[in-house]
Amino acid sequence: MTSRTMVARTMAGALFCAVLAAFAGAARADNALSLKELSPNGADVCFGRVYDAAHLKAHPHQKVGRIFFFYGHDPVSRPNEEPAANQDNSYNGFLTTTVRGAKKPEWASSWCNKNDPSDPTSGIRCGMDCDRTLASLKIDDKGKLLLSGLSADVYLDPDASESMSKAEYNKQALGSEDDNFKLDPMPADSCKAEFARIDPIDPALGDPLRVRLKPDQPFCFGRDYDDAHLKSHPNQLTQSIRVFRGPIELAAFAAGGDAASWPDGADIAVSVTTRQNGKKITQTYSCQGEADQWRCSASAKMSDFSCDVSQKEIFLKRGANGTMMVANPNNAVAVVDLCSKANGKTKSDDKVYRLQPMPQSACAP
Predict the structure, then answer these.
(1) Among 341, 324, 314, 365, which Cα is nearest to 20's?
(2) Model-level pTM?
(3) What is 117-177 written as a DSSP string?
(4) How far apart are CA 4 and CA 57, in angstroms?
(5) Do residues 191 and 183 touch, judged by C-beta distance below 8 A?
(6) What are the φ/ψ torsions at residue 51 (nearest 5 degrees)?
(7) Does residue 159 carry a pLDDT above 70?
(8) What pLDDT is stored for residue 232 in this prediction?
(9) Which pLDDT score, from 0 to 100, does residue 158 have?
(10) Contact 338, 298 (CB under 8 A)
(11) SS3 letters for 161-229?
């Protein structure tokens, strides 16, 4: 198995997020290692369990043979999209599991926070990219970690149950008994050794977008869908799409942005032409680096809206060989009216775009 193991993993031939919720404020772990329940003294901590043959025989629907949860500073150190000044706080919860028969583990990173900071008895939620939930945590009276709410497709794309055949999904997803784990406290080095078994990141992905795309330079990515593609995707509304930074966006960042915090505060523009009427619509978004993606909220700078469009978000992520992936989990690309009743998950075939770099002239207004 290749590196399918980051939160949204390598994006060659894969989707990377489909669920959006109200966790953005907590996702930035500015108070890394602040959960005293997990780490009373602020040190890196490790919990884990290796299941023996007798347990696995008694639980035939449990695929996980080894599981470790590390709460601390990044044990994997993969390149991400957050400004360099923030990267020490990029993540604080890491899960790795090895299923029966696998040679290497898979892993996911997360930000862990109290569900209700004002309530000492509140549980802990660990969130992932695109506001997915990794798991809920609790320490029992014996100091063991209770890990629950683990999704079977935690290592898959969120819409994998739709995009994969049932047989392939069942093969790659975790088992029906892979939840409600009780993990023992272990030395931090035990978790670090476990994470050291993970495959390196796919070199085809190259540098993060924040390194490839400079704050003072324009860029243009896009795709024009041909008749054959549109015929095979009758539910796709997009005929053409461009994602770019041009003179307007560069000037806005030069006036109010901070190059040291790049890409936080970067404006981008997204132009789409729909197949129904061939009309081009351009929408501006304001971005920030988050984990291995840019999280971009729709902006009202260019138009007047009857609703709060800042809740409409898209996600940019580096793809293989210089491409860019754009996720549209909740109808935030203007192929539909951003204030329409088309709320919730994107139901059309406009969820994820795979875009190629283009000359700047291809993104001219």
Answers:
(1) 314
(2) 0.61
(3) TT-TT--EEEE-GGG-EEEEEEE-TTSPEEEE---TTTTS-TTHHHHS-HHHHHHHSPPTT
(4) 27
(5) no
(6) -85, 140
(7) no
(8) 94
(9) 64
(10) yes
(11) HHHCCHHHHHHHCCCCCCCCEEEEEECHHHHHHHHCCCCCCCHHHCCCHHHHCCCCCCEEEEEECCHHH
